[in-house]
């Protein structure tokens, strides 16, 4: 298997998150407080939105511009991508530590945490994006755990910088 090919368990995780997005879209027309706030804020590109940094609103605005989706469809798509990103990053971290067989199970376990399973998709927009970014930071840092004496590649350092910056702009 190529290192860039997703194992079936991870594909199932992405499909689960897509199913969540569809279920959320069909469940109720009412918006949670956080969703209503995003619908309002994504109309303008600003340096910040109240007490929250701007990355989620910038991403939401970009998805809408690129796809022409309604704001709610783009919001739920972005949340589903962030939610599946947590599971994929956690599974990737475990796979890099030499436990490829357990990666899917660990990714699924991470998705059963109440914060991710129930609260994040409904109300924790910025926290979900920050969690995804930090899971990517952990995944990119995996080689440091196995061989701390061996330096990271420039690509890994660049990725770490981007993921940390995205986390800071998320929450």
UniProtKB/TrEMBL annotation:
It comes from the Bacteria. The chain crosses the membrane at residues 71-94, 101-118, 124-145. Keywords: Glycosyltransferase, Membrane, Signal, Transferase, Transmembrane, Transmembrane helix. This is Lipopolysaccharide core galacturonosyltransferase RgtB. Residues 1-32 form the signal peptide. The keyword Transmembrane applies. GO terms for molecular function: glycosyltransferase activity. It is an enzyme of class 2 (transferase). The keyword Metal-binding does not apply. Its EC number is 2.4.1.-.
């Amino acid at each position: 298997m190529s290192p860039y090919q997703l194992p079936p368990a991870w594909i199932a995780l992405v499909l689960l998150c897509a199913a969540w997005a569809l279920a959320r879209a069909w469940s109720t027309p009412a918006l949670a407080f956080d969703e209503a706030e995003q619908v309002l804020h994504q109309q303008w590109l600003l340096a910040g939105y109240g007490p929250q940094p701007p990355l989620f609103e910038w991403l939401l605005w970009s998805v809408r511009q690129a796809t022409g989706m309604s704001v709610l469809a783009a919001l739920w798509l972005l949340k589903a991508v962030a939610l599946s990103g947590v599971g994929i990053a956690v599974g990737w971290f475990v796979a890099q530590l030499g436990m490829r067989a357990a990666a899917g199970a660990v990714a699924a376990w991470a998705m059963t945490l109440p914060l991710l399973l129930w609260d994040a998709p409904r109300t924790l927009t910025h926290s979900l994006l920050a969690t995804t970014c930090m899971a990517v930071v952990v995944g990119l840092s995996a080689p440091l755990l196995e061989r701390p004496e061996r330096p990271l590649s420039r690509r890994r350092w660049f990725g770490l910088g981007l993921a940390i910056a995205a986390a800071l702009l998320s929450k």
